[in-house]
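[job 4417] fold queue: 2 targets
>>> target A
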Amino acid sequence: MRMALIVARHEFGAIYRRRMFQVITLGLPVIALAVMGVIWIVQQAGGGDEDDTREVGYVDRTGFFAGHRTQGGTRFVDYRDRESGMDALLADDVDLLYVIQEDYMARGAVERVAVGLGLNLDDGGDGVLQAFLLDNLSDAAPDTDVVERLKAPLKLTSITVDAEGRPRELDAARVFFFLGLAFLVVMSVAMTGGFLLQALGEEKENRIMEVLLSSVSHFELMAGKVLGLGGAGLTQILVWAVSGVIVFQAASRLFTGFSFNAPGIGMTLLALALFVLGYLLVATLMAGLGAIAPTTKEAQQLSILLALPQFVPIYAWVYIVENPTAPIVQALTYLPLTSAVVVLQRIGPDAIEVWEVALAIAVLAASIGISLVATARIFRAYLLMYGNRPSLREVARTLARG
C-alpha cells in the first residue's frame, strides 16, 4: 500500500502541474465572477437616473385624451396636428409619435410613427400607450371595478403538483446550482479519466511501464494512479463548489428577486461522495481500456464508449427536472455510469427519496468493486502487451479465469 501512495502522490503532482488543469480549475470561477460583474454593471448603467423621463408625442384627433400624460418613466407630449408632431419627431424632441384617429372610439385606430429602418419593432412604448389610453377612458367609465379589471385582467398564481397531486415548489437557484454541479462533476470525471488514460498510453508506448512494474505490483500501480488523479479531481470539484456558492451568494445580494440558500454540510458531503464514487467507477474502467489498447490514440477512441452515457443526463436535464419520477429517469438513477449525475440533478428540485439515494450509492459501490476486480485482472494480463489489441473473446476469457 505504501508504494500505491507514492504513485498517487506522483500522479497528483503531475496533473496539478499541468497548465491546462490549472487554467480550467481556477479559470471557471474567475470567468463566472467576471460575467456576473459585467451583468451587474450593465444593469446599473442601464438603470439610468430615476428622474430621467422619456418623451413620446401624440396627436389627439378625438379631443378625449387630455389627462394622465405621465406613465411611469414616459411623458406624453400633446401636439395640435400631425405636422407639428412630425417636426418634433424628426428634430428628435420625442422618441415616437402616436396619432389617435377621429374614429378611435369605433375602431380603436392609432397610427404609430417612428424614425428607423421600417421594421416596426415595439421598444416598449406601445404598452405605455395602452396604459395612457385606459387611464383616460377610465375617467368616463361608470364602473371603476370593470376599469381596474381592464387594466389588469388577471393576477395569475401558478401551482405545480407532482404525480400524486401534491403541491411542488421549486427553488430555481437551488435547481440550477445542483445542475451546474452535476455538469462540473461530469467535466471533472471526464478530464481526470482522460489524463489517466493518456498517462497509461504514454507509459506503454515509451516502455516506461516495464520499469514501473519492476518496483510496484500491477494492483499498486493501478490503485496509485486512480487515487492520485482522483485527489486532483476532488480538489477541482471543491474549488468549483466553493466558488459556485460564493457566486450564487453574491448574486443573491446584487440582483433583486434572486435568492439562494447554500447547501448544508450533509448535502455537500453527499455531493462529494457522489463525485468520488462516479470517478472511481470511470477511472477503473478507463484504466482497463488503457491496459487493453496498444496506443494512446486507440485508447481515447475507446473511451468515447464511457463518456457518452455520462453526458446523456446533461443533455436531458430539462426532462429530468420536470419529470424526476419518470421510469426512464429512475432507470438512469440506478445505471452506474449515469447514477451520480442524475442523483445530483434530482436533489436540486428535492425530487428524490432517501432510499433512492442509498440504493444508487449501493449500486455505484457494487459496480466499483466489480470493475476493480476486472481491471486488476486486465492489468495483470495485458499491461505489458505491445503492438496489438486482444480480441473481446480473449478479454472475456481473462476476466472469467482471473
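>>> target B
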Amino acid sequence: MFTVKFNEVDKSTNIAITDITGKIIYNNRVTAKINNIDVSENAKGIYIIKISKDGNIYNSRIIIK
C-alpha cells in the first residue's frame, strides 16, 4: 500500500497505474486529499503511476517488491 497526497482536489483529478505492458491495474477519480492505494495483490515489478489534473499529466515509476 502507498499513499498519494494532494494539496487540492477537483473533479478533473485522476490516478491511473499501469504495468510495463500498458495494462491498467488501477484507475480512479480522486475525491480526497489523501489517497491510500492497495497494490498488494499485484505481481512484483515496475509500474507507472499517472496523475492527471487540469489537463496536466505527471508520470512516475513505482516498484512493488
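[job 4417] complete. Note on B: The domain at 2-64 is CATH 2.60.40.3080 (Immunoglobulin-like).
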